[in-house]
Amino acid sequence: MELFSWKNDYSVKVGSIDSDHQKLFDIINSLFTAMSKGEGRQVISGLVKELQSYTIYHFNREETFFRVTSYPNAANHLEQHKIFVSKVKEYKEKVDKGNNDFSPEMLTYLKDWLLNHILVTDKAYSDHFTKNGIV
After folding, report:
1. Sign of the torsion formed by the C-alpha atoms of 48, 49, 54 and 60
2. For residue 132, what is the DSSP state?
3. Is 131 exposed, middle or buried (0-12, 13-18, 19+ CB in 10 A)?
């Protein structure tokens, strides 16, 4: 069971970033599946930790590409990254304290944020990156 599936429409035309996005889909879908089976409490901490670390890894990749290509909208994009990292950190802290009651709200936020971020914010750099040799 999946919360959402990768579609080619989500591609930003950069293989490594598309792969990162697919991995983020996988992590969120794993969390959804575990919660749907009533296994959320057993696995939520590990999945939120994986989401936190993979998000940072992915954002570092994008931010490196911003620097090497002098991406003109980097400051706004970086601000969105900070907001998301802060929100995931907040979820991780709740999990670490044993609070798993927020999980449905968390899943909705993660799905909506990721889809909107890819389709709007990340798509905005697609042409810039490809014109600068990032594929």
Report:
1. positive
2. T
3. exposed
- For 72, phi and psi rounded to 5 degrees? -70, -20
- d(CA 77, CA 94) in angstroms, rounded, equals 26
Match 């990254």 to its residue by tokens.
81
Q: How far is CA 23 from CA 18, 69, 126, in A?
A: 9, 24, 19
Length of the chain: 135
E strand or H helix at 87: helix 74-96
Query: Which pLDDT tens digit goes with each residue over 76-120?
Result: 999 999 999 999 999 888 888 877 666 788 889 999 999 999 999
Query: By the 8 A CB rule, do 109 and 87 touch?
Result: yes
81-115: buried (b, 16+ CB within 10 Å) or exposed (e) per residue? beebeeebeebbebbeeeebeebeebbeebbeebe
Classified by CATH at the fold level, domain 42-131 comes out as Four Helix Bundle (Hemerythrin (Met), subunit A) (1.20.120)
Q: How is residue 127 written in tokens?
A: 């042409």
Count CB neighbours of 57 within 10 A: 11
Has this prediction a pTM greater than 0.85?
yes
